[in-house]
């Protein structure tokens, strides 16, 4: 199976100059990329066409040491739940105010390399009238975009779901690129209490592979996210077993779809016991199982593995990440957290302008903690009680 | 493998079996607005809603034609249209014992990294759309996947992606009461011989049925709309018997007996050619656990269109031409066509357009 040639791999430092990957791309490269030559059985040229180099650079930039992703791509409905939890109405103005708070936190780019946006936010401006995308870029943060269209029930399965969003994806990703996005995200789920059935795993993996191929073709680094839900009372060994199967299938289909591994990022769930399992695991155990999974299933060509928090508390998510970074890894092992970065910040803000600075400080505190965790240097000093609160919601739907 | 049996299971099985009733077949009248525009412009008729409506009324109200049809595939616009007298087309068809069907795919897009191969879109929100169509009276659906034969085509990626899309579409339809017609069309374009077409058709159908099984589709509640196995458009022609032999053999090798019927597409064959080929298949003495029928678009409408030419005074003449083709194809499903259909103008004309884009 052909994949990107070795010449695309550079041994340069992963921390790249902003100008190399962002605003310089004013002229969109032609998507009339090289197609297969008419002669010869092995003439099929590969993937990612005209964007290959850029994809590799972007992926490496996001996967830079000491940094991770801020996931702020809650759909309007989900954002509504967050706002409701602090007594705010789900209006565009409130969503704008909240996202402004996040993206303008001073110095955020020290700890955050990428921010995933929802479509509304990609086209929004801050309350000061500046484009959200521009603010992020100035902060040295790569803008990303959620491109899936949510989960729907999967007939013939055991009450499981599949993820929609492939229709028109090529033109949508091209438009998002024009707007300044440089990576994309697609979240599908797999449920252990429900099986998972072979059909659900196959459908999840195939959808991710098709999405990744289309994203790369249009200049966006695809974040590949098959979330194995925390729900259930299963032990850590069962999670490990399911995760191995899921990742094997994901990479098989990625290869079938000629996706260039050097130009993707992964967003897996950590290998933990189910939320209702009586036996809890220590961060060391989580790290041990998770790293074993990664070593067995993830090709080293993948530049970055950005874990999701999936309902863990802010501190738990940081501790687990830290435990995974106590030794060198062949890929950048980092975070892509939403609730585990925003929870305390959101509560501190409470919707009041006078609380903005304090809220931004808590965001920076969490971002810094996770940055240290990425470097394996987190010590856990000075964590608040709020930060230790679990955020698991049974049967959570986004 | 156990299939998904939702609340519509019995109805799906009944409707699929009905569509395969010997002596009947499907009129594919689901040309999108763009495509029907090409048909209309070929007879110098403007592509406006009233003309599209008039053409479909001409077809559906041809006296005596509906007895030869078990289903008509409609485009979304047509599903909600009425005759000039105000009767919904859906009712006209139902009263004539014909099931209304609906095209649900959203066209093809290129598969990057391939040599112009495509995949078909339309899965997003498909469940809701199927429900809506069921409420409007539709009882079966259609989704067209396209593959082509070339030096390196069809690629395994194209085969897998199209088969997967068909399977996902099929199960969603069944969840919502519509019998899915599974259509993996392998284009006739090219200089390849009939053996090559047979090889590719067998591989593609095998992949399709594997995917349908993986997705727990109820096969008894589906129909297949394949291409006939023929030489490429640029290769020397063969007789209907040769086509029949290769086609039926390909189906025997790949299509489970559980599928009630095959409704062939005409894919650019002339009206007469398509009828003769179908007839030859039904005369073949061999194992055929499914019925072999038609789902023709161009091969049912070509001479009708020419006779009509958009003029009110030609309607009767055009309807007569349509009736001739319906009856001929009905006989072909029984293997009793004698080749004596009064050939309307254009009935023997090839309808192949190279690299045809719908």
UniProtKB/TrEMBL annotation, chain A:
UniProt keywords, alphabetically: Chloroplast, Glycolysis, Lyase, Methylation, Plastid, Schiff base
Cellular component per GO, a single term: plastoglobule
Coiled coil: none
Keyword presence, Chloroplast: yes
Gene Ontology terms describing biological process: glycolytic process
CDD domains per UniProt: FBP_aldolase_I_a (cd00948)
Classification via InterPro entries: Aldolase_I_AS, Aldolase_TIM, FBA_I
GO MF entries: fructose-bisphosphate aldolase activity
Pfam families per the UniProt record, alphabetical: Glycolytic (PF00274)
Catalyses which reaction(s): beta-D-fructose 1,6-bisphosphate = D-glyceraldehyde 3-phosphate + dihydroxyacetone phosphate
Protein location: Plastid, Chloroplast, Plastoglobule
E.C. number: 4.1.2.13
Pathway connected to this protein: Carbohydrate degradation; glycolysis; D-glyceraldehyde 3-phosphate and glycerone phosphate from D-glucose: step 4/4
Major enzyme class: lyase
Family: Belongs to the class I fructose-bisphosphate aldolase family.
UniProt function note: Plays a key role in glycolysis and gluconeogenesis.
UniProt-recorded name of the protein: Fructose-bisphosphate aldolase
Source species of the chain: Citrus clementina (Clementine)
Lineage: Eukaryota, Viridiplantae, Streptophyta, Embryophyta, Tracheophyta
TrEMBL record, chain B:
Gene3D superfamilies, sorted: Aldolase class I
One of the record's GO cellular component terms: cytoplasm
Location(s) in or outside the cell: Cytoplasm
Keywords noted in UniProt: Cytoplasm, Glutathionylation, Glycolysis, Lyase, S-nitrosylation, Schiff base
Top-rank taxon: Eukaryota
Main localization (coarse): cytoplasm
EC number: 4.1.2.13
Family annotation (PROSITE patterns): ALDOLASE_CLASS_I (PS00158)
Enzyme class: lyase
Pfam families found in the cross-reference section: Glycolytic
Cited InterPro entries: Aldolase_I_AS, Aldolase_TIM, FBA_I
Matching NCBIfam families: FrucBisAld_I
Membership in a protein family: Belongs to the class I fructose-bisphosphate aldolase family.
Protein name: Fructose-bisphosphate aldolase
Source species: Citrus clementina (Clementine)
Lineage: Eukaryota, Viridiplantae, Streptophyta, Embryophyta, Tracheophyta
